[in-house]
Write a sequence for this structure.
């Protein structure tokens, strides 16, 4: 029986249509060595490509004319590697995922290579992989780096750069239909309400182990001057217009996690949101949330290395 990823890749092949590897390679190799292109052409359905071959191929696509037939043949192998990069922190594929995101962000690279339905199939595959990683979240508490929350949050943020339809992904996540989605919602929302050194979900950063809460506007890949698609920014602004939306998601998460080991942490987050500050000089979590719900869409709409330009005010 096929695994879920095999089933999704088979469905992706169906969406691509007739995929036949090119008989002749016309793609120019960026490093002048075409050996990796020859190995990619010989791959069959179900096989895995070398991460180094895929990384080299991304350089070819970024910096040279694209052979469309080779790109369509290679895409399923690219998506499998990206999926494993997302799902497995130990997966080694140096340089590939970063360049793959960059290729996807530059839609002009696909002009004449993929039709609209094929491009939609690529994005649908990616949304399902991100949701799969979100569904796999088990531990609410995170300490040190690397840790699973950083992977799915960066993937979510980067998806907002490369595709205009993050609403589908976000609303599936905030349906809180699984315990993993509940855990992920509490992880994410904790970053919207707590100072970085007093977040009960993410232990403070240390020199030895790293850690701390993830940055909610950090993109993966080489997208230093990129920003979210305007459709995604407008969606998030509308979603965040009423903080009660976030309160509702937290309540759903608390209910979903009633038998989970992180239930007390989720309940603490909800109680903190509902409490007033005992010190008038300090902002309550609800006040901090309101400020950050306004600020975050604006940050995501701004290009130019936003991850180093902005900081939450504690």
């Amino acid at each position: 029986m096929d695994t879920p990823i095999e089933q999704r890749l088979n469905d992706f092949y169906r969406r691509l249509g007739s995929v036949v590897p090119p008989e002749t390679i016309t793609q120019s190799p960026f490093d002048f060595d075409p050996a990796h292109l020859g190995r990619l052409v010989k791959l069959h359905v179900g096989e895995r490509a070398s991460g180094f071959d895929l990384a080299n191929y991304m350089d070819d696509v970024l910096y040279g004319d694209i052979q469309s037939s080779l790109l369509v043949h290679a895409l399923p192998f690219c998506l499998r590697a990206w999926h494993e990069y997302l799902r497995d922190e130990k997966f080694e594929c140096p340089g590939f995922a970063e360049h793959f995101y960059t290729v996807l962000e530059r839609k002009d690279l696909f002009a004449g290579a993929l039709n609209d339905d094929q491009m939609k199939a690529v994005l649908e595959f990616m949304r399902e992989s991100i949701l799969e990683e979100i569904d796999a979240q088990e531990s609410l508490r995170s300490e040190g780096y690397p840790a699973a929350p950083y992977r799915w949050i960066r993937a979510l943020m980067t998806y907002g750069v490369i595709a205009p339809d993050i609403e589908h992904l976000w609303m599936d996540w905030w349906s809180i239909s699984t315990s993993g989605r509940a855990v992920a919602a509490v992880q994410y929302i904790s970053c919207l309400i707590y100072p970085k050194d007093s977040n009960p979900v993410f232990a403070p950063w240390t020199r030895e182990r790293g850690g701390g809460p993830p940055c909610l506007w950090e993109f993966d890949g080489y997208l230093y001057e990129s920003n979210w698609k305007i459709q995604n920014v407008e969606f998030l602004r509308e979603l965040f217009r009423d903080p009660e939306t976030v309160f509702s998601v937290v309540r759903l998460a608390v209910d979903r996690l009633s038998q989970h080991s992180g239930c007390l942490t989720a309940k603490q987050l909800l109680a903190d949101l509902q409490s007033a500050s005992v010190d008038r000089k300090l902002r309550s979590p609800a006040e901090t949330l309101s400020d950050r719900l306004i600020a975050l869409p604006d940050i995501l709409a701004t290009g130019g290395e936003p991850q180093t330009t902005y900081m939450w005010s504690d």
